[in-house]
Design brief:
The complex is a heterodimer of chains A (about 170) and B (about 100). Chain A has about 170 residues and is mainly alpha-helical. Chain A contains 6 helices and no strands. Classes of the chains: A mainly alpha (about 170), B mainly alpha (about 100). The interface between A and B is large, with 86 and 72 residues.
Chain lengths: ~170, ~100
Amino acid sequence: MELGTVVFYLVAALVVGSAAMVAFSRNIIYSAFSLLGTFAGVAGIYVFLGADFVAAVQLLIYVGGILVLILFAVMLTHRITDVQITNRTAGIVPGILIVGIFLALLIQTIRETPWAKAKEIVYTPTSAKIGDLFLQSYLLPFELASIVLLAALIGAVVLARKEIKG
Amino acid sequence: MEITLTHFLILGAIVFCLGLFTVLTRRNAISVLMGVELILNSANINYVAFAHYSSGGVDGQIYAIFVIMLAAAEAAVGLAIVLAIFQLFHTIDVGATETLKE
């Protein structure tokens, strides 16, 4: 096997393994820290797909932002003394059954569909093209995104502050 | 053996199913949010894989960036709601927040 193939399978195993840890771990702290492996592994997958800018964004926002936010929320809410109820689950057997059937269907569909193929597969730097598109064809969504982020920021502050009676 | 589009789509499907399982079975609100993050990541893998193998452009990557942006907004608001629920009910079990029923 080529080196690239081996590395792909290693990264994919990291992603799937830590995602399984998120799904099945009994301790929510372990779940939260396993998300780090998933996010970093997905960034590696983006590098495989020639998406350098998206990989950097994934690392900055997911690992640097969302993961830290989730860890903060875990630390702020769960009572360390009663570990056994921190990550209770419900209906594991029906869950595995439904999700397993769904996964089998998905894989069947993926294998049998004749997906469109690009004329040639290129590996070029993408940041310049992405910047051009953001300021030309995707200008309106780009501006809307900033409004959404502002609204989310204000909403989060309003929701999370302490209620002041009076 | 060459790595093809199918490999990435199957990886996305597996991560999606693990995220779906997390959302379906967890009672802890933060764990449910983690499952949503897994699902969004799997969607992003599909976007970028199709952009690379099927269209050859970067439009799929732009959608992936928008999804990442929305995931950040969703995480901020969602976790703020979880903190508010914790202040009110002193638990983040999603089954406990049922006062609207009464």
